Amino acid sequence: MLTAHMAHFSTQLNYYLSFDVVECGWVEAMKRLRSDSLDSPESLLLAHSNFLQSATKHAFLHPESRVIKSQLRLLYGLLEDLQTLVEGFLRPALAEKERIDAHRARTEERIRNKMYGTNEAEEAALALAWQKFLPIVEETQTKARCLLTTYEEQMSAFLLDLCSMEDVRLQDLCIRLDISGYYVSRDQKLRMSLTLAHRLSRGQLRLRADHASVPSLR
């Protein structure tokens, strides 16, 4: 579950940065650059500067985003911790697999040659190696559970800060990052922050006059 959550986080955040921030921002900037109102070098430079400022702000590179940036640093640090944990487990796990595969191959070869497949010494050595490997499995499982708990806490805090932003794109990012509503179902504060009534009370949703009327059903 931990790897699925981290993969979802990384994929959605990369999509937000590359598409919502850079690509959509560049499309809007090009529209302004092609407009008739930009008829001087100064206005062109201003339009380009506005694009850079918008991209910097929404990519969490603005000084005002230091809290979000700090949370992202912590989250990506946990991703690196998982990578270290997996790599540290794979080395002894692959060694154990090779040992078992080699024992199985020897056994099958001996049986084909109408010999005894194995003996007590080989079985005892294999069992001893397995007993040495089991503590590594248990330690890795314990570390993975601790890592999952820490990741969920950090992600909940990150999503709570995102959904409290006035920018609708950041609120949408919060919803996309919440994999299958997992964090909303576990965190009451986050669930409340994403409700329509709460966002209206904070003035985060501004209904325009042309969208306010609801057609009657007849």
Automatic annotation (TrEMBL):
Start and end residues of each Gamma tubulin complex component C-terminal domain: 2-183
Family membership noted in the UniProt record: Belongs to the TUBGCP family.
Molecular function via GO: gamma-tubulin binding
Keyword Phosphoprotein recorded: no
Keywords: Cytoplasm, Cytoskeleton, Microtubule
Organism: Darwinula stevensoni
Top-level taxon in the UniProt lineage: Eukaryota
Pfam family, one: GCP_C_terminal
Subcellular locations according to the entry: Cytoplasm, Cytoskeleton
InterPro entries (alphabetical): GCP_C (IPR040457), GCP_C_sf (IPR042241)
Protein's recorded name: Gamma tubulin complex component C-terminal domain-containing protein
One GO location term (cellular component): microtubule
